[in-house]
Description:
Layout: H1 2-16, H2 20-28, H3 30-39, H4 45-57, E1 61-66, H5 74-93, E2 105-108, H6 121-139, E3 142-145, H7 153-166, E4 171-175, H8 181-190, E5 194-198, H9 213-229, E6 233-237, H10 241-253, E7 262-266, H11 271-279, E8 284-290, H12 295-304, H13 306-320
Parallel strand pairs: 1-2, 1-8, 2-3, 3-4, 4-5, 5-6, 6-7, 7-8
Helix pairs in contact: 1-12, 5-6, 6-7, 8-9, 9-10, 12-13
The chain binds flavin-adenine dinucleotide.
Amino acid sequence: MTELFHRVARPAILAVSRFDGLRRTAERLPVTRQVVHRFVPGETVGDALNSVEQLRYSGRLVSIDYLGEDVTDVDTANATVDAYTELLDALASRGEAAGQVRPLEVSLKLSALGQALPRDGEKIALENAHAICERAQRAGVWVTVDAEDHTTTDSTLSIVRELRADFDWLGTVLQSYLKRTHADCEDFAASGARIRLCKGAYEEPASVAYRDRDDVTDSYLRCLRVLMAGTGYPMVASHDPEIITAVPAMARENSRTVDDFEYQMLYGIRDGEQRRLADDGNHVRVYVPFGTQWYGYFVRRLAERPANLTFFLRALAERRH
Ligand SMILES: Cc1cc2nc3c(=O)[nH]c(=O)nc-3n(C[C@H](O)[C@H](O)[C@H](O)COP(=O)(O)OP(=O)(O)OC[C@H]3O[C@@H](n4cnc5c(N)ncnc54)[C@H](O)[C@@H]3O)c2cc1C
């Protein structure tokens, strides 16, 4: 059932979700919002800060993401910069960044900063990301650049390399389903970068990506071995028990203590496991998305797990009765 879901339903959900009409209908339904709430704590900076407080109280770190992607005009890209500025200023003024064992982090998508704009998209995204990094540096907050679909990888990694010349604490995400990622890990591990390794959440062709789930996990473990052996800071972004179980031995083999890497999971997913890892003395960071543009993020979460889709469809059906 799970294999069938990943081979058939997952690509279909991700493809169908691109239709604007469906998006508008889904966004309007109150029941969608109830289910979204499991993965997205709210729409405002205030909602995000409330979650930060609760997660910190339970000994977890956070990475806050202002939701948005695939921006098609300069004004919306500028609005994204403003939203991050507001967030970073709020974090600074509430002293959220002070006294943490590890800095707070914000995550951002370059497509939300204008990367795909037809004229000078890359340059605009670089300038916008640079402005956010400057603000983050003043607030004592780390920035990590998310990974999007494979057509953006070269552009994203080249922007990240340029930004790292000014902000050597800047991190980025690599996706183990991409066949190129082992080589990217070798490159970034040698330069001492913070790398968040995840499996990858987009629908990618076999020409560039492993499509079998076991192959993706094997690739993850191979890539993580490279990051653990390097001089950077690995961020193990996965909920997969097979991966989580492999981490302590891999860290020991590379003389890394719990301070030399961290686990990362998404808000609302395997909360008990997040707490267990934190209680055992590990650094655990929770990715907390907020904002009104939750549709793309939400669909990727539905497409990851049959149970999520079933839950959503059941809620929809109950609403009709
Ligand atoms: C901190 C963080 C940042 C990320 N950033 C990116 C990014 O920038 N780009 C990108 O492409 N992807 C990103 N992802 C998503 C990632 O690529 C995977 O799609 C996602 O994490 C599921 O893969 P998994 O390793 O958890 O393993 P899976 O094999 O998918 O899941 C393992 C187990 O985790 C639980 N689980 C996983 N997903 C869900 C879910 N949606 N709902 C409920 N339970 C679930 C289930 O128990 C499942 O059996 C990120 C993930 C994390 C944790």
